[in-house]
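Ticket 4471: requesting a sanity check on a complex prediction with NDP. Repro inputs:
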Amino acid sequence: MIQFGTLISDSKNTEKNLPSEVKEHVHVLILGSGPAGFTAAIYAARANMKPILYQGLQAGGQLTTTTEVDNFPGYPDGVTGPEMMEQLQRQAERFGTEVRWGMATSVDFSGPKHKVWIDEEYLIEADAVIIATGATARYLGLESEEKFKGSGVSACATCDGFFYRGQDVVVVGGGDTAAEEATYLAGICRKVYIVVRKNYLRASKAMQDRVARTANIEVLYEHVTKEITGSQTVEGVTLINSKGEEVKIAVTGFFVAIGHHPNSEIFRPYLDMDETGYIKTIPGTSKTNFPGVFACGDVQDSSYRQAITAAGSGCMAALDAERFLG
Ligand code: NDP
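Returned structure tokens:
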């Protein structure tokens, strides 16, 4: 029987009545199943810390939405995102990580043991918690965008740009990410259109200058995307300009760069974060402001966001947890 009794306030200051009976005590609890979570698990398991890893909503993390991964060292012929995540999971399990379905939905870090509720009903107490819950790319929300995800629509130029060598592509967004992705793509593609809904770029002056200096980038101000078109893969995009007119351009790639949001909401009452919700760690470590709580991967990294950097920080989190637990 579920015992209810623990009242905790979440970030929206609503009170939740959660079960208070601790179902399990674990040494090291890892939340998230991307490269950061699995790397933390490999290290923690090999150090005999018997980690339990909860996969979260998107088992395998963001990489499972990518096709080829060509930039992860050690795969000279490339690897698909899902295949790489499967291998990372097998490697973590080989050393004794227990991988479970389920998602952390509430936490209470106020006591000596860290409490984590899985799916709001299963309460675990952990000596150390490694947060590797990642970030989620924002998309425009168009039906056609959904249709072409993985076959022309991407939210990561460094992951997928290579496939558009010599072709024409669109980048949507006016911030630093859009500017950075567009300049990266400009080195690979024939022509890059940046589609910006306002009449200015929000990106930093330095990034704006880089965009302006790049001959094969054209910025389309005050344009919004109506639809991405094509049969099997992307063949074009229909935009609407400030006069309400349709503008059609032929492109084979559509890169969405309108921001990410870190999956950190449930930790907000306890952990220090920047204004966009990225968990702050002590520089050069994975330590958060709560002893025994560590963060790695994209949930604490708004800058690099690569599988290899996430994996590296997952390793740091396991080593920091090992040192903390003595
Ligand atoms: P931002 O939130 O800064 O920018 C998002 C952009 O997407 C804005 O131009 C916004 O338009 C646009 N946008 C949002 N929703 C839509 C929509 N539905 N349709 C069309 N356009 C939309 O996100 P970024 O990812 O660019 O940057 C996040 C943070 O990371 C920033 O602080 C940035 O400075 C930092 N960063 C730094 C880098 C660096 O220093 N090298 C590299 C990348 C990011 P609008 O302006 O109209 O709101």
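Notes from triage: Confidence is low (pLDDT under 50) at residues 1-5. Leaving this open until the requester confirms.
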